[in-house]
């Protein structure tokens, strides 16, 4: 799925992250990382033409993620998994998987479960608290956008 307006997507997701969550020690808007960290991560991930990095969780140790206007890039040690944002069927806190009776997010939750259109699943850890809540709200926006594109 190609994003027709990556600048709009990046601005929307940045705003959602800041308004409904916030940065942490290792999870923040892309532009808030030091230039050396951004450069090293981009060398590992590679960007497509017109793709804009939006936010990332980059803890020490080589794990983490980058969310761009086009893709979610997961780092697990030396392994890199790249997923088009349009291929994300569901992304939710792992603690909620199969549990629809929840009322509110726990401040201790730190893992998202991504289910892709091909049925595969990926897990990514995010700092608990405001960073987790911010990422969750961005992912909810991403899933709503995917549902709209399926209908239209």
Question: Keywords, please?
Answer:
152 residues, alpha+beta, PH-domain like, 32% helix
Give your account of this protein's structure.
The chain is an alpha+beta fold. The protein has a single domain (6-96, 106-151), classed as Pleckstrin-homology domain (PH domain)/Phosphotyrosine-binding domain (PTB) (PH-domain like), CATH 2.30.29. The chain has 3 helices and 8 strands, in the order αβαβββββββα. The protein has helices at residues 6-20, 35-45, 130-151; strands spanning 27-29, 53-57, 64-68, 71-76, 79-84, 88-93, 111-116, 121-125. The strands form 2 sheets. The chain has a 5-stranded antiparallel β-sheet, sandwiched between helices. A hairpin with a 2-residue loop joins β3 (64-68) and β4. α1 (6-20) packs antiparallel against α3. The longest helix has 22 residues, at 130-151.
